[in-house]
Amino acid sequence: MKRSTVLKRASILSAGVSLLLAAGIAIGSVPAYAANLIVNGGFETGSLSGWACTSASIVSSPVHSGSHALAGAASGSDNAKCTQTVSVQPNTAYALSAWVRGSYVYLGVTGGPSTWTPSASTYTQLKVSFTTGASQASAQVYLHGWYAQGTYHADDVVLDGPGGSDPTPTASPTMSPSPTTSPSASPTSPPPTSPPPSGLPKHALIGYLHASFANGSGYLRMADVPDAWDIVNLAFGEPTSVTSGDIRFSLCPASECPSVESEADFIAAIKAKQAKGKKVLLSIGGQNGQVQLTTTAARDRFVSSVGAVIDRYGLDGLDIDFEGHSLYLNAGDTDFRNPTTPVIVNLISALQTLKARYGARFTLTMAPETFFVQVGYQFYGGAGGGDNRTGSYLPVIHAMRDALTVLHVQDYNSGPVMGLDNQWHTMGGADFHIAMTDMVKAGFTVANTGHFFPGLREDQIGFGLPAAVSAGNGHTTPAQVHQALDCLVKAQNCGGYALRGGRSPSLRGLMTWSINWDRYYSWEFQNSHRPYLDALP
Ligand SMILES: [Ca+2]
Q: Which residues are bridge partners to 512 per DSSP?
């Protein structure tokens, strides 16, 4: 979050553009068979939509049926593997088949049986059957050739059997492709946990309140925050030094904010908010508040100092808005499920301690930038070769997923980010919010690690926006925000993007930086989006 009106983070990702794998993967969602669980099994979309491939293209000849087929360009270093992950039912028999031609062509299910042909000069059908496990909710099917055996072709891939009982009915195919090609990638479905009572409305409006400082937008007293806002994040709690872990919060000094209320009035206003069902959280971090818990002493100081602020002001919980260089991954820290970097491990431990202390009433939100979450699909800091901060929120989100109330990624101040369609998405319009939020819902394989990051429950997911053009790069017009909500919540008006995570009727809502900026701009954000959220099913 930016205290100032001038922003400069937008270029942070632009260097990644040059690494674009010009795969030419287009968008489409027309299944070839009504009863076939495979999306685009006949490749008749003319694209690789539904599939994730290392080296493949669509050809018009030779085909087995229709007018398109898959060509996998196996080479000396690449077996041209294509995968697709499908929702399945446990303890159920499935039949997988495909028509293939070429030398050494394989068809199988990851972790299960496979079959192959050493040589097929014309299209030949491969078939394999498997039965799912007692708790299996998804299966990844694959096709590949063999090293240095040349291009293979495939067409009419069919997975015959009942579709998975996805907890949310979907209007569009709900594939969760495993987009990278590591052979150990094992897609995992998010655990079907039911959401704990959060005390929040089904769709919430979340905003930051400049409470400890002033900027061009002006100070706003807690009592004057409109009731449209369900979660008010106090910006900011900041550390006494980068590594102290000692978090302090104080109201804006009167010299800077002449209209600031007394601390007693501030606390009374928080209580009044809570009496109306609103949540008031301490947000830690922001542009200036770097927090690196490099030691267990800093971790313990973090817990005690944050607890003291929560108790003093009677707050409902915590918002983690670490930016800059707060979080990073040491070289070799490649498994987000078992992080080893101290700043990550200590933050997780501290949050777990605070959650245990305050129990069910503890509200926990996070506002990472795309760089720390979605960019992890392409680059993971601990795996080397790039910025060691990429994806570094993923281990924190994963470790806290049962305690997490809302994750609202900052869909702003961001460079282009690659989505699950393996296309670049640029901030400022509906498409960016759709693609970024779908990644959080569907989950994704973390770059170069083979580990699948499972998506979050839909009630845990929101997305963040600048309230106005002065508040951040990537301001999105209300109409575009509503289009993104229509797509994510109702699977309507998706602009050609196929939701991998399905629609999310219980999507939590919208976050903005900030309530102060919204007031400055005559409440455009609140007045546009509160009624829209309330009108959603
Ligand atoms: Ca075909």
A: 207, 465
